[in-house]
Write a structure and sequence with these properties.
With 201 residues, this protein is mainly alpha-helical. 66% of the residues lie in helices and 4% in strands. It is built from ten helices and two strands. It has a two-stranded antiparallel sheet with strand order 1-2. A hairpin with a 6-residue loop joins strand 1 and strand 2. Helix 3 crosses helix 7, helix 6 packs across helix 7 and helix 7 packs parallel to helix 10. The termini are far apart.
Length: 201
């Protein structure tokens, strides 16, 4: 094997070892049995499968592989930036800067061409302008909502979450899929408002 090919593979496998750390990044959403919280890698895997099966409900036609790739890599920055809880206002103030710096480190591990490609996909997700990015954001918001519903709203109750906070966070969820957002409101949110798991403003 020539030196350039060997060097490329060394960098790729260095990246693969690095992203194993995503499995250790805890989130605030519980798994469906309510016994422990999910990690970033589990979150990404779940959304990827959801995208494959729910793509037909996107507002616009999407490139499914690109959207799946986007969801699999968009939280890798949290290896260095950490997870920022959806309703942590103080953390949100520094999130963008922390994640931009982390993106340089994570995607900079890769060979130049592949690193720029993945970083570009991450930036596209952050910009929320393409059909793929809009649908990916819809998945990113619906997946934890679904798990919260499955666990009788444990995380919402623990954090004393208000309906206004959820609606603010989801003000663009409909941009990826009107159908899925309406479904989520009816099936994942409002029953928990009625039960008092989500505080009604």
């Amino acid at each position: 094997m020539n030196n350039s090919k060997n060097e490329e593979l060394d960098r790729l496998f260095s990246f693969f070892r690095l992203i194993d750390r995503e499995k250790f990044i805890g989130r605030q959403t519980y798994l469906t049995d309510g016994n422990r919280k999910e990690n970033d890698a589990e979150h990404a895997w779940h959304m990827a499968i959801m995208t494959v099966l729910l793509a037909k409900y996107a507002n616009e036609e999407i490139d499914v592989l690109k959207t799946v790739t986007m969801l699999l890599i968009h939280d890798l920055v949290e290896i260095y930036a950490g997870d920022t809880y959806a309703y942590d206002d103080a953390g949100k103030e520094t999130q963008a800067a922390r994640e931009r710096e982390a993106a340089e480190k994570v995607y900079g591990t890769l060979p130049k061409e592949q690193g720029e490609w993945l970083k570009g996909i991450w930036l596209e997700f952050e910009a929320q302008e393409t059909p793929e990015a809009k649908f990916a954001r819809t998945m990113d918001n619906l997946q934890p909502m679904m798990l919260n519903d499955s666990t009788n709203g444990i995380s919402w109750v623990e954090h004393g979450v208000h309906l206004s906070q959820i609606l603010k966070r989801n003000e663009r969820t409909h941009c990826g899929s009107e159908v899925l957002w309406e479904y989520a409101k009816e099936n994942f949110l409002m029953p928990h408002v009625e039960k008092g798991h989500i505080i009604k403003d």
